[in-house]
Structures are given as C-alpha cells and as structure tokens.
C-alpha cells in the first residue's frame, strides 16, 4: 500500500510540475504580447478631427492584443487556482498592466476628457477644482473622493491624468478585494486566485471609467467585508480600527454607498447568527451594533446640507411621476428594433452581467439544496444571501421612484456578490476535480471579461479640446442671467470648466431644459433664431451633427435622435438675429437677440 501511495504521489507531483511549467510558458508569452500592446499604445496618435468612437479609432491589432492578454491573464489565475501555484501574482500583474493601458486610452488619443457635457463626473471635477483653488470644501455633499483626487494633484499627479489613474486605482482595489474576500470566507487553497479571476472583468462596464463616487466608493466594499469577517472570527480590535477608517471614508464618499454598507453589515450579522443556530456549530456571530454605529455619523454629516432635504423632497414629490423604469421603457419603445438588433444590443451591453447572474443563480440553487439536504455552508450561504439581497434592492430601485441610472448601477450590490459566487463555484469545481465544470467556468469568465471591456467605452462620450475651450470661453464671457442653450450639455459642464467655487458658476445658466429644438427651430420660411430662443446664447458643436450619423445607430435611431444638420447651421449662420461671438472650428457660440 505504501508503494502505491508513493507512485500516486510522484504522478501527482509530475502533474503539478507540468501544469506549473505550462503556466510559466503562458506567462512569458502573455508578457510578450503585453510588450507589443504597450508599443502600439505608445504609437497612438492624437485625433486630428472629431471621432464618434474611440474603439473604432484604434487599429484592430491593438484590440486583439488587449483581449488576448486579458483572457490569458484570467486563464493564468484560473490555472493557479486549480493547481494552487503562485502564478496568480503574474496573472494579476498582467491584468492590471493591461487595464492601465485600457484606462489611459482617451489620454493617448488626445481627448480632453472622457465624459460628455451631461456626465456627472464633470460636476465632481468642478468640485475638485474648487478644493484646489480655495483649499477648503466648498459645500460638497460627499467630498471623500474629491479630497482624494485633490490630494493626488497636490502630490504632483497631473490633473488631466487624475480621472484615469483614479479609475484604475479603484478597479484594482475591487479586483484584489474580491480575491481576498473569497480567500477569507472560503479558506480553501487556490481561493485567492479564483477570487481574483472572478473579479477581473469590468463588472460595472462603463462605470469603471466614469469616476462616479457612488460606484468608486462601492468598489471598496469587498475590503470592508473582509475586515468584518476577520473581526468576527478573531474579535481583534485592529480590524475594527481599519474597518472604521474605511467606513468613515465611505460616509464622506457617497450617502447611498453608506446605506449599502450599513445594510451589508446588518445582513451579515443576521446571517452569522442564523447560520450558527442552523449548523449547530460554535460560530462566532457579528454584532449588529457594528453597522448601527455608523448611522449617527451619517446623520450628523448629511443633515448639515440642504441637498439632503432636497433629495428627500425629490423622492417624495416623484411618487406621482413616471418611474425611471417606465421612462426607459418609453424611450426604448420610441424606436423599433428587429429581434436580431435587440439581441445584439442586449449582449453587447449586458452580456457580461447576464453570464455572472446566470452562474450566481445556479450556485444559489445549489446552496439551497445543500441547506435543505446536506447542511449549510458558511461561504456559499453568505454569498447567496447578499446576492439575493442585491437582486431585491435592484428591483426596488428599478420599479420604485428612486434616483438611479441604468441596470448596471442599480445592480452593483448583486453584481459584486455574483462575482463572489462565481469564484466559489470555481474553487469547488477545482477541489472536487470536476474538470468539465472548471473548463466551462473558465470559458464563461473569459467571455464575460471580453464583453464587459467591450461595453466600457461608450460612443460619443469623449470631450474634445474644441468643445472644452469653447464652453470655457462662453461661460466666462456671457451675460449672467441670460440662458445658454446647448444640446446634451448642462450646468455640469459649466462647473467643470470654471470650478464649483467660481462666481461664474452661479447661477448655472446651462441647465437640462436648455436643449436644442429640432432643425434649430426653423420650421417656416419667416422663422428667426430670436423667435425660437429669445434673448439667449446658443452653443453649436460638431458633436451635435456627427454623433447621430455614426454607423452604430440604426436608421430608425438616427431619425429619432437627429436634431439638426449643416443646412440648419447654414441658415443659423445667415440669421440676422444670431451673432457669432466665438468659433474654433469644432465649436461655435452665438448671441441671439431681436436687436442683433
């Protein structure tokens, strides 16, 4: 029997050596591809004109290299999880370096900013400008991320690089956080690599690039829950101190993330208590006081601001209005799509989310089966509990009258724990030597990563220097109190170009209602600009006329979204009531008045 065991051990060692040897070759090859990709990145030339899509502007060879390195890095992590090797470090390094190139693409292409004239990030960077100009917090509701970015700028990081560096930083924290969380709750060999592999896709797609405090602050949650688990098990006060520091940062980062944090802690406390009773084992439970302790801090901070009362009033006043879900359905119904077009758009936008939700759903069913017939498992039960809670919260957001944007943002809680469940499924299939399931999971995880990265850079989200310079000129020279009409531009752009501390920001005369009418209002031979706009300013830009004719819009969409073309601009140019006060080739500012 001993001789047989020795042979089995040698066969096992040979198997492990072969797999680790292959992992080494894989890492070397991927490193070579990454070097080639970096060389192509350095050769990217700034755009010479207006572009509707950053993705289409780059050569296909760059994207082949990017996706090869991304998929290969995740495959390296999966192989490290299966063989329990140390090559997870190499896989993680490849993925982060690959994403660094990906996140800085707008900078390499020469765009002024990633985010158009209505993006929330513009207002947040206006807050950062205010901090840098005054050295204080100019009435910012949730300044955590703003202060962090301002401090990075003070330390020498160029302001134009802050959006991309910060996005990469929080994404890295989330990937590593998911890996450490899975390792903490699972405790099995290879679980760290499995968690890193499951966390590698950009599960929030475009929000990874948008520098939104609601999403960036939520990316810290895996670290927070890891500290919570370590404290629950050890009762060590060092974890409490770290936990409180991160918790306070989250309070100052975003109120919704704070509520998520409190709910997560309370749910974890309830789950740990219930699990201890059902499993009949001596499991240390988490005290709910850890979550409740943050409520006074949150209350004391947010009640200082008028935005708090305004936000509550908006929710209450919206009870009789159409829900965000209903409004989205109305917009979607305004343009007809064929079944093929609908399927293509759904896979492009939500393919990654669907894959992770499907895997998490299967794991949740298996967890329920184990709970009923084989006994509960703490790690799977914890992930399933939070995943289910996330689905319930997302349903409330989408169906209720709450302020939320898009399915991805509403599902950030459930998406996070879907990734945790995907990792736990990989750990289980590897430990049980179910090679078929492991291969299927590997294919689905890589596919999810490819789809998520493909959906991250939305078309027409890149601001040109012409648009920035033109807007900056207009908001610094217009007569305050006179409205500024602009298409897909709001007061957020005004805050971005002058800073929230500037006296030129108040009143913010570029508001969401100052949109451009179809054909610039020319529906008759005798109509003038003054008849349409009255005493006002009008901003026209290449973005207005080019974005809707891009090939990624169907003909029906182009017809629905199109506002005005060169013929309307030519009539505007010859209109006696419209006087051009600024132009730079890609942007024009007009003063409209009956007296012109």
From TrEMBL:
Keywords: Membrane, Transmembrane, Transmembrane helix. The chain crosses the membrane at residues 25-44, 64-81, 87-105, 162-182, 189-207, 213-232, 239-266, 286-303, 355-373, 385-404, 413-431, 437-457. The keyword Chloroplast does not apply. Coiled coil: none annotated. The keyword Lipid biosynthesis does not apply. This is Transmembrane protein. It comes from Haloarcula japonica (strain ATCC 49778 / DSM 6131 / JCM 7785 / NBRC 101032 / NCIMB 13157 / TR-1).
